[in-house]
Amino acid sequence: MPSKRRVVSMFWTTTLAIAIIGGVVACGTPQATYTTPAAPVSTGSGSQQGIALKLGSYRPNVRRPGQMCTFLLVADVKVTGVGQAHWNTSTGTKPADASKLTVMQKGYYIYTPLKLIFQHIYIDHRPQHTQEFVSVGGQVGADSITMEDFPRVTSGHYLMIFTPTLMAGQKGFDATRLTLYSAFPISSQESVMLQPKMIEQGQVSQQEVDMPLVQVAQQLATCK
Fold first, then answer.
1. Tell me: the pLDDT tens digits for 182-222?
2. Model pTM?
3. DSSP conformation letters of 110-140
4. Region of residue 81 (phi > 0: left; psi between -120 and 50: alpha; otherwise: beta)
């Protein structure tokens, strides 16, 4: 198991790489329902009727089990649905000064809670119980925020990795919430898609990479 110093170091390295993207919630024994935010490089529109933003983030991609060792939580999870999206405020309501500009400046985000059934936990560095698991982005009334580089899932079977969450008006990260950082589909043959195939302008720009779940588990078991 990684030392506490290494876990903290990885956490802050990831945080800085994610830039202003938000945070990721973390903590506790998984149960079944949860939410999180992301990072800004905006394209979108804002009006008195509502805010509509598409945000991009600059963050490291995780493609190998060895890169997952220092995340707060890595688990085999089934997603059964999602809850009602909310803002990342203490009350879950929209900030009075929320606008396209302040979303970028003050780190306002919308999170969507995830309803999860944990099949197996491979890595668990959480310091306390998790109250909520979330994905970054969602819609609350007329307001919507999309984080293009963060996964949005509503159902299915995945290998998931989580990080802590950023809450508006709160220093540091909320350790009682976990944000979904990556979700790798697990097939009915128990194979994990670590990297999807990509085709750009008719050319394969990225090959699909699959690994048996049992092999992923074996590699995660060697994390130190």
1. 999 999 999 999 988 777 778 777 778 899 999 999 999 99
2. 0.76
3. EEEEEEEEEEEEEEE--SS---EEEEEEEEE
4. left
